[in-house]
């Protein structure tokens, strides 16, 4: 496994690597969700690369960039054991050198949910992923369904700008009680961790209603919301949305004819959790 810290060296190594090349972009603090992507990328490709970069431009001014979990030594051990060929480990000045002033502005797919709750977030995501794609030129790039809107933003950008990667979405990996794996779960106190599975129960409430034949988006949204409101430990509910899983457009009538996604973001103390289920 080769660890690379500069864009120029990574670009050169990827140009001479044996294709197909698979890329797994991460912000480190790796968990089983990340490693499921790594294993799939290893199985699919002759060369497998992972990037570790805590991207400052996707964090808002009052968000957790400074304290975001970092566990580089352990991450590298996990990646070596999984057979990773290349690890791209740039610092912020390498990705955003002095004078950097070019940004990717996503369109309608980024407007609701996370885009509304975290202004500028998807501009940072899209810009750094565009840079990673142009540096590594992957044949395939792997992302988790937990960040469903992020995947839609990246897929749309990849298509619109002809970046040429196959964007592969992998299922959300969960704890036995349903909590979606996330690096930020490390912030949860014991009491908050006990309450956190309510997020998945809320999504399941909507899914079970849908499986019973309900197709009204507002009814599905209400079922999820009621479940969340039953948990007093929640600090707040940022949103519960029923959207088209491709365009991320809010569905206000029937979900019939859509691959619908039920998505939510909540706060438990200082921790913000997001999750979603696709109804199919």
From TrEMBL:
Keyword Ligase on entry: yes
* Gene3D superfamilies referenced in this protein's UniProt entry, alphabetically: HUPs, Pantoate-beta-alanine ligase, C-terminal domain
Question: For this protein, what is the EC number?
Answer: 6.3.2.1
Q: Which reaction does it catalyse?
A: (R)-pantoate + beta-alanine + ATP = (R)-pantothenate + AMP + diphosphate + H(+)
Q: Name one GO cellular component term.
A: cytosol
The main enzyme category here is ligase
**Protein name as it appears in the record:** Pantoate--beta-alanine ligase
């Amino acid at each position: 496994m080769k660890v690379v810290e500069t864009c120029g060296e990574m670009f050169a190594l990827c140009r001479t690597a044996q294709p197909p090349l698979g890329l797994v972009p991460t912000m480190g603090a790796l968990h089983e969700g990340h490693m499921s992507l790594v294993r799939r990328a290893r199985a699919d490709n002759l060369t497998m690369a992972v990037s570790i970069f805590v991207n400052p431009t996707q964090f808002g001014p009052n968000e957790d960039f400074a304290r975001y979990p970092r566990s580089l030594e352990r991450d590298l051990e996990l990646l070596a054991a999984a057979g990773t060929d290349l690890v791209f480990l740039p610092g912020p000045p390498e990705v955003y050198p002095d004078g950097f002033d070019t940004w990717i502005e996503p369109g309608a797919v980024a407007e609701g949910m996370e885009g509304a709750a975290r202004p500028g977030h998807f501009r940072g995501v899209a810009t750094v992923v565009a840079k990673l794609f142009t540096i590594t030129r992957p044949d395939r790039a792997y992302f988790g369904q937990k960040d469903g809107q992020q995947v839609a933003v990246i897929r749309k950008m990849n298509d619109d700008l002809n970046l040429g990667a196959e964007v592969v979405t992998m299922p959300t990996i969960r704890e036995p009680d349903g909590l979606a794996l996330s690096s930020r779960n490390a912030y949860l106190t014991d009491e908050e961790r006990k309450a956190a599975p309510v997020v998945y129960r809320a999504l399941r409430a909507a899914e079970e209603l849908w499986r019973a034949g309900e197709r009204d988006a507002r009814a599905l949204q209400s079922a999820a919301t009621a479940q969340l409101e039953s948990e007093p430990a929640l600090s707040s509910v940022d949103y519960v949305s029923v959207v088209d899983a491709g365009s991320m457009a809010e569905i206000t009538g029937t979900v019939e004819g859509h691959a619908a996604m039920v998505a939510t973001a909540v706060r438990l103390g200082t921790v913000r959790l997001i999750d979603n289920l696709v109804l199919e």
